[in-house]
Specification:
The complex is a heterodimer.
Chain A (H helix, E strand, L loop, with lengths): L6 H11 L5 H4 L7 E12 L2 E13 L4 E5 L6 H8 L9 E8 L2 E2 L5 H7 L4 E4 L3 H4 L6 H12 L4 H14 L5 H4 L9 H13 L5 E5 L7 H18 L2 E6 L2 H7 L2 E6 L2 E7 H6 L4 H9 L52 E4 L2 E3 L5 H12 L4
Helix pairs in contact in A: 6-7, 6-9, 7-9, 9-10
Chain B lengths: L3 E10 L14 E11 L4 E5 L6 H8 L7 E6 L2 E2 L5 H7 L3 E4 L13 H12 L7 H11 L16 H13 L5 E5 L7 H18 L2 E5 L3 H7 L2 E6 L2 E7 H6 L4 H9 L39 H5 L5 E4 L2 E3 L11
Parallel strand pairs in B: 3-8, 3-9, 6-7, 7-8
Antiparallel strand pairs in B: 1-2, 1-4, 4-5, 9-10, 10-12, 11-12
Classes of the chains: A alpha/beta, B alpha/beta.
């Protein structure tokens, strides 16, 4: 992070020299609103190097939603913290590129980053109680978020905040303004968090498991709210979750992570109707469904997620993969590349694409 | 004869004011009139939002909490006020699997000792000795018996939940209350534990009361499902009847809120507004009326009775109507 190149210049430089050939880089460079390119986040620890994110690339347009799915320890939260620049000042080594509207967030100064954070990009955390300050009223906390980035008188800020609280569905926003977080229920706190994230109309909103701690009825309210606000403000949303149902409901594109890498990246409809990676199949077939009774037993993914210090050699998923017999080459030697199997549908697997389609249709789909 | 019969069970928690003289306030009615019966080998799913009283119900049935009123009969015997020695012997038949695989295992005991605790407490020696039996249990739940001397922190969440299951089945009980046993686990691991619970049930003809907020998991595992709201039962029915033809507006709203992993499916969503009212001061009449899309004046005055509208399908609502939502 010591390089202080002028961001626009370095982008051009990379473009012209054509280093790192990557599908998402070559098709059309700067018109994407957010582009993450070959992101690595490594944590040195006493036990070894934890490769929490290892070579992740994706992009996102305004007004669309990317769902990042994965189990605990797959690197999804670490990715979101990297985009927000929240690994700065820690021992984490973040490399790669994160382009937000033409600026590489990994190269901007702390000062510039601070002016972006909470302003052009904002984050909603999983646990609203520990993300809100218990000593300040909800109103004070939202006013602070507003006044850090915008010159505004106290009374203007007050009006603006009350308006925002009302918009995220908090009843009696005038009275609620003066209450403390402990006086709010879980759903209301999450609404207040969303209000705080949206107070400066961010163009990029990262939601890290925003509904995991909430009841389904409240989850439905929050997802609806996020959809409405996206339609109104045209923000780009990154939705991080382990719930494939939530993804199906809200995302346009989906990225499936396993062991710090992307294993499948597709449009939402393709991901659910032509999933192309054995791990995605595993996730889908291990889930009980509300809309049907699975006649057979659930098909769990065997074993446990890998340690990020000793990621298995070859394909990180190979020790748990039930389909490696179909691979023409050993899965535990070379790591498969993330390749385009179908238009706008990438996956990382050694099994040839037609064979994968066949295995899915014959062995996996009937049990879903 | 049913394995378990619960009649009009109530569990109230007293509240006190914060003033100098701690005068008694209105009690929190966590469970208010629960009636159910359970056959051997059956699974009853208990669902509802947080704060609906489902965990309190499970704990009261197991006598971890003293019931305020009502009757619990186990194998025809009244156990409502069992205590002391009687209760200790009873625990051989009634066991529990807890939600938190981290908090429910003593970190200073090796897992061999944790799984052996029921034998020690009950002063039972299984044929072949405690250690052999514990290792057989470990093998049964899919743990390596050689890990007998390891401590809980050396295991992953899924493995710890297996330890909890091994401990619960050690004395071959007839009924296990599973309180959110898989909600702390990742999906791929969740399926492993669900399959394990199903296999053990089939082997030992165990009955489960399966408490969960995840309606998909409950649909998969239960034979019958009970929906609770604010301490009261809203609807009970066979699994298929409940999921395919729910009649209570709360059940319908709850189901319609669950996201389904299929982006092509366009479902109608019944949105509930607001939050759960305080159980200390529940609404008059029907407790659900403040959030119910169908509520009328009658609902504020008159509490709906539980009516069996179809065989085995009981609904507590003034305006029940079948509506398919999934």
């Amino acid at each position: 992070m010591s390089t202080s190149n002028e961001p626009g210049l370095s982008a051009e430089l990379l473009e012209s020299t054509g280093v790192r050939v990557n599908r998402s880089r070559t098709d059309s460079a700067p018109d994407k609103f957010l582009r993450v390119n070959d992101l690595h986040v490594h944590f040195p620890t006493d036990d070894g190097l934890v490769k929490a994110v290892d070579g992740l690339s994706f992009d996102l347009e305004k007004g669309t939603t990317l769902g990042i799915v994965g189990e605990s320890g797959s690197g999804k939260s670490v990715t979101s913290l990297a985009i927000m620049g929240l690994h700065r000042g820690t021992r984490a080594k973040v490399t790669g590129e994160i382009w937000l509207d033409g600026e590489d967030l990994l190269k901007v100064s702390d000062e510039e980053l601070r002016s972006l954070r909470g302003n052009r990009m904002a984050m909603i955390f999983q646990d609203p109680l520990s993300s809100l300050h218990p000593y300040y009223t909800i109103g004070q906390q939202l006013v602070e978020a507003l006044q850090v980035h915008q010159k505004m008188s106290k009374s203007q800020a007050h009006t603006h905040v009350v308006d925002m609280l009302g918009r995220v569905g908090i009843p009696n926003p005038d009275r609620r303004y003066d209450q403390y977080p402990h006086e709010f229920s879980g759903g209301m706190r999450q609404r207040a968090m969303i209000g705080m994230a949206l107070i400066n109309n961010p163009e990029l909103l990262i939601a890290d498991e925003p509904t995991t701690a909430l009841d389904v009825t409240v989850q439905a309210q929050i997802l609806d709210l996020m959809r409405d606000l996206q339609a109104e403000f045209g923000s780009a949303i990154i939705m991080i979750t382990h719930d494939l149902g939530v993804v199906a409901e809200i995302a346009n594109d989906v990225l499936v992570m396993y062991g710090g890498r992307c294993v499948e990246y597709a449009e939402v409809d393709d991901l659910f109707h032509q999933p192309d990676h054995p791990y995605t199949w595993g996730l889908l077939s291990s889930m009980p469904r509300l809309d049907r009774v699975k006649l057979e037993r659930l098909v769990p993914v065997a074993g446990n997620p890998p340690s990020l210090i000793n990621v298995p050699p070859g394909c990180a998923f190979n020790p748990r993969c039930a389909f490696k017999e179909f691979s023409p080459r050993p899965c535990n030697v070379d790591e498969p590349q993330l390749l385009e199997s179908y238009p706008k549908h990438d996956s990382r697997c050694h099994i040839p694409v037609p064979k994968r389609a066949e295995v899915f249709a014959e062995r996996v789909a009937p049990k879903l | 004869m049913s394995l378990l019969t619960v009649t009009d069970l109530k569990k109230y928690f007293p509240t006190y004011s914060q003033k100098i003289f701690r005068t008694k306030g209105a009690p929190v009615k966590a469970v208010d009139g629960l009636t159910l019966s359970l056959e051997p080998g059956e699974t009853l799913g208990l669902v509802g939002e947080s704060g609906c009283g489902k965990s309190t119900a499970g704990r009261t049935i197991l006598k971890l909490l003293e019931p305020t009123a009502g009757k619990i009969e186990f194998q025809g015997r009244d156990i409502t006020h069992a205590k002391g020695e009687e209760l200790r012997i009873l625990r051989r038949e009634l066991q529990m699997v807890f939600q938190d695989p981290y908090g429910s295992l003593n970190p200073r005991h090796p897992i061999g000792q944790i799984i052996a605790a029921p034998f020690e407490i009950q002063k039972v020696t299984p044929p072949g000795g405690v250690k052999k039996e514990v290792q057989a249990l470990m093998e049964r739940v899919g743990l390596n018996p050689e890990h007998y001397n390891r401590y809980p922190h050396e295991f992953s969440g899924g493995q710890r939940q297996r330890i909890g299951v091994a401990r619960a089945i050690a004395l071959k009980p007839k009924l296990i209350v599973c309180d959110e046993p898989v909600s702390a686990l990742d999906v791929s691991i969740q399926a492993q534990v669900i399959n394990l619970l199903e296999d053990i049930q089939n082997e030992q003809n165990l009955a489960y009361i399966f408490i969960a907020h995840d309606l998909s998991v409950v649909r998969h595992i239960s034979d019958r499902v009970m929906v609770m709201y604010l301490g009261k039962v809203m609807e009970v029915a066979d699994r298929n009847s409940l999921y395919e033809r729910p009649m209570h507006p709360y059940t319908q709203a709850l189901m319609s809120a669950v996201p389904v992993p299929d982006p092509r499916r366009d479902r109608e969503r019944i949105l509930l507004y607001g939050d759960l009212p305080s159980p200390q001061n529940p609404p008059s009449g029907c407790v659900f009326r403040t959030r119910c899309p169908l509520a009328t004046e009658r609902c504020a005055v008159e509490e709906p009775l539980k009516v069996e509208l179809e065989p085995g399908h009981i609904v507590a609502c003034h305006y029940p109507k079948v509506r398919t939502v999934v």
